[in-house]
Specification:
Radius of gyration: 22 Å
Oligomer: single chain
Shape: globular
Largest sheet: 8 strands, mixed
CATH class of the domain at 81-144 and 219-309: Alpha Beta
Structural class: alpha+beta
CATH architecture of the domain at 81-144 and 219-309: 2-Layer Sandwich
Helix content: 25-40%
Number of helices: 12
């Protein structure tokens, strides 16, 4: 029997598992997909919010500000790139200025540090490419950017290195009372556990109902994005928000930690929890809003687009509670969920402690996870030494991102182990450049099949039925 089972291997579930792995606990992480970080974690704005937007006194406000303060140290321990680039909420009118002043006062109440209103001249010195129609902005120097799926992968990997177990392709179909806890079942297997932590994203209401909790509902909110080439990453240096509306923080323009430029998201409430389609209407909305905010954004340099689903709860706040003994919800974790994730983990740890779970520190716990090696960022001397030690690092597989065979093999051999092409992409950035895997995809497939000891044609893009190679030709090639 496990002590704690976490349902959902996104950034929240990952950081919860990692936080608990410092104790002498048997921990299991259940994920319905073929890999971790497959839900909202892989498709969001990647913003570490300062904390001025959430309503005063809410869990969102409390955990956002706390998570913001924790994020840099967490990323340093996990070997994840984090940049405190600051954010700007821009205003086009005196009406917008009034809203920005309200946001600043809310942020001050929420204990956000360094907020101030920046006027037009200073603003355009900070960001020369902003529209001339912008007259002011709320500046939040504590805002930042991080790669959400890299953070989730690192947190789960660190938890596994410290003894946690991960079960992918485990879609929970039932949760039943068992002796001293619960029996959590899928179609093919089950685990028994003393505690269940529900971090199931858009399906967290479904999971809660399995233990009789009907107190909330979750609906998905679609958000489409456009990602531009690395040569566009210097268009802006801060994260640029529009003045927010009731549907969210609006369409933003931001650099990423890998120096791409990210535009989006759109915001549409829907009912289908699997609808991640991108649309021409959505792209038009992104382009029109971006062109109003920033001058000459080269949208013709777009290398990919994607859609994510935010988990919008019926309560208007994060839903972190224990409706029945031994079961904890971490539901409705929409924005600022990424920022709040380290603080959510801390909050749930405190809940378990208050409920009587013995949290005896594991003396062998290691909070440090070595970052994935980046051959491209090494000096010429370091590259030569690395190739001498392992010639696989001298074979470039992904030309666009400069990713080597050695880096891909390293990623396959580390926790959590990728088993499909998108898993390799999230860990190494191979297939993430201009050609989106058009050149390196077959080579990555070959490496993955060899390392996993499976057939070439069995490798998928993202698990399930997403086969890439259907059969062998008469010449023996897929």
């Amino acid at each position: 029997m496990y002590d704690v089972t976490v349902i959902g291997a996104g950034v929240v579930g990952g950081l919860v598992a990692r936080s608990l792995s410092k104790y002498k606990l048997r921990i299991c992480i259940l994920e319905s997909e073929n890999d971790v970080a497959m839900g909202a974690t892989k498709a969001n704005s990647a913003i570490v919010h300062a904390g001025f937007d959430a309503k005063e006194g809410s869990l969102k406000a409390k955990l956002n500000v706390r998570g913001n303060k924790m994020m840099e140290a967490v990323c340093n321990e996990l070997g994840v790139k984090y940049i405190k680039n600051g954010s700007l909420v821009v205003g086009f009118s005196e009406e917008d200025r009034a809203v920005l002043n309200e946001l600043m006062q809310r942020g001050i109440t929420n204990n956000v540090e360094g907020l101030r209103i920046v006027e037009k001249d200073e603003l355009h010195e900070m960001e020369p490419n902003l529209s001339d129609d912008i007259i002011c902005a709320l500046y939040a120097p504590t805002g930042g950017i991080v790669c959400p799926y890299t953070l989730a992968i690192a947190a789960i990997g660190n938890a596994m290195d410290n003894g946690a177990h991960l079960k992918c392709n485990f879609k929970v179909t039932g949760i039943d009372a068992a002796e001293n806890g619960y029996k959590v079942s899928s179609e093919n297997e089950f685990v028994t556990t003393r505690y269940v932590i529900n971090c199931a994203g858009v399906y967290s209401d479904t999971i809660a109902k399995m233990v009789g909790d009907n107190s909330f509902d979750i609906h998905p909110r679609r958000g489409e994005y456009m990602l531009l080439d690395r040569e566009c990453g210097d268009t802006v240096s801060h994260t640029i928000f529009r003045t927010p509306s009731k549907m969210g923080k609006g369409i933003l323009v931001t650099p990423t930690v890998h120096n791409n430029l990210l535009l989006g998201p759109t915001s549409y409430d829907i009912t289908d929890k699997e609808n991640k389609d991108t649309t021409a209407v959505g792209f038009d909305a992104i382009i029109n809003s971006t062109n109003e905010t920033v001058k000459s954004v080269p949208v013709n340099k777009t290398i990919t687009s994607f859609c994510g689903l935010r988990s919008v709860g019926s309560t208007g706040d994060f839903i972190i509670n224990s409706p029945v003994k031994g079961f904890i919800n971490a539901a409705g974790i929409e924005s600022p969920g990424l920022t709040s994730s380290p603080a959510i983990a801390e909050y749930i740890e405190d809940m378990l402690k208050a409920d009587g779970l013995a949290l005896e520190v594991n003396p062998d716990y290691n909070p440090i996870r070595k970052p994935y090696y980046s051959f491209q960022e090494a000096s010429p001397e370091e590259k030569n030494e690395t190739i001498k030690e392992n010639p696989a690092y001298g074979k470039i597989v992904c030309r666009c991102e400069g990713i080597t065979e050695g880096e891909i093999i390293e990623a396959i051999r580390r926790n959590p182990q990728p088993r499909d092409l998108d898993g390799i992409k999230r860990r190494t950035r191979a297939q993430m450049g201009r050609c989106q895997g058009g050149f390196c995809g077959p080579y990555v497939t070959e490496i993955l099949a060899k390392e996993l000891g499976v057939s070439y044609e069995s490798i998928t893009k993202f698990g399930g039925e997403s086969l890439i190679n259907v059969e062998l030709t008469k010449g023996g090639q897929s």
